[in-house]
Structures are given as C-alpha cells and as structure tokens.
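Collaborator request, handled under Task 6.
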Amino acid sequence: MMQLQEILLDYIPDPQLELVLVMLVVPFVVDAVMFWVVDSLIMKKYKQKEILEVSGIMENSQVMKDEEYQVGAERFPMPL
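Structure tokens returned to the collaborator:
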C-alpha cells in the first residue's frame, strides 16, 4: 500500500496540492464513475422493459395496470 502511495503522490511537491487532490479531485472522479455505472445499469433495465413492451409481452400487465387505475379513480374522484 505504501508503494502505491509513493508511486501516485511522490511527483507532487506541494503538500497543499496533494491534500486538494486526495480530498476533492479523487472523490469527485470516483463519484462521477459510480454515477455513470449506476445510470448505465438503470438505463439498461429501462431499455429491456421498453423492448418487452414493444414486443407485446408486457401488454397484458399494462392493461391490468390501467384497469386498476380506473378502479382507483372511481373510488377517489378528483374534486372539481
């Protein structure tokens, strides 16, 4: 572990700059990568769902959801 630290941070002469890198820049980069990975996974799931809906596999479940919505709307009508 100490060798990795020496390799990555030895070329930075200023301790203040090293602190900024370790406390601000690296966490920002890691957060951006994590956001990208999670977003990619969510979009992959959304695209798979879209493909299934287009092919008609989920058509029946959508009809049931619409019917449930209509039943719920009858029970709780919107005030005018």
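The cover message to the collaborator said: "The two ends are 67 Å apart (CA to CA). The chain has a mean pLDDT of 76. Please let us know whether this matches your experimental observations."
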